[in-house]
Amino acid sequence: MKIIKLQVCCRSFIKFILGGIFLTLLQNIKQPSLSKICLSTSEGFEFVNTSDILYCEAGGSYTTFVLNNHKKLLVSKHLKEYESLLIENQFMRVHNSYLINLKEVKKYVKADGGYIVMNNDEIVSISRAKKESFLEAMQTNP
């Protein structure tokens, strides 16, 4: 009798999973966004609030983190490695060389093919291919 109940229970569970309900539930669980990131510099490890990062700039196999306290940190990892970590925190790759914090954008200038001015008044290039998605992201997440 217990084996039959177990079989019925297993069948119900399989139908539950195969029915897509389980998958839908997993997709609806939002991962918490990163509040701090650990950066390995030549001096040691720096723990930086993601909200303090204005933008990241690629330089070969190095990445420079520009912070809102006018500090720059050089890390010996590719920008792509940080892109996957920071994309959930309102960061966007706007150029092969730049990953920016959308919350730190001061303005977009159309002249000279278009460029971005960050809150520290530094200029960041934007590629033609990323321009439309950048403007859309700024309109939906001011």
Strand fraction: 25-35%
Structural domain count: 1
| CATH architectural category | Beta Barrel
CATH classification, class level: Mainly Beta
Give the integer mean of the pLDDT values: 83
Total strands = 10
Radius of gyration, in Å, reads: 22 Å
The CATH homologous superfamily is called LytTr DNA-binding domain
Topology as H/E string?
HHEEEEEHEEEEEH
Main beta-sheet strand count, sense and barrel state: 5 strands, antiparallel
Total of DSSP H or I helical runs spanning 4+ residues:
4
Architecture blueprint of SSEs:
Layout: H1 2-18, H2 21-28, E1 36-40, E2 45-49, E3 53-59, E4 62-67, E5 72-75, H3 79-86, E6 91-95, E7 98-101, E8 105-109, E9 115-118, E10 123-125, H4 128-140
Antiparallel strand pairs: 1-2, 3-4, 3-7, 4-5, 6-7, 8-9, 9-10
Report on this structure.
With 142 residues, this protein is an alpha+beta fold. It has a single domain, classed as Beta Barrel (OB fold (Dihydrolipoamide Acetyltransferase, E2P)), CATH 2.40.50.1020. 32% of the residues lie in helices and 34% in strands. The chain contains four helices and ten strands. It has helices spanning 2-18, 21-28, 79-86, 128-140; strands spanning 36-40, 45-49, 53-59, 62-67, 72-75, 91-95, 98-101, 105-109, 115-118, 123-125. The chain has a five-stranded antiparallel sheet with strand order 5-4-3-7-6. A hairpin with a 4-residue loop joins strand 4 and strand 5. The radius of gyration is 22 Å and the shape is globular. 19% of the residues are buried.
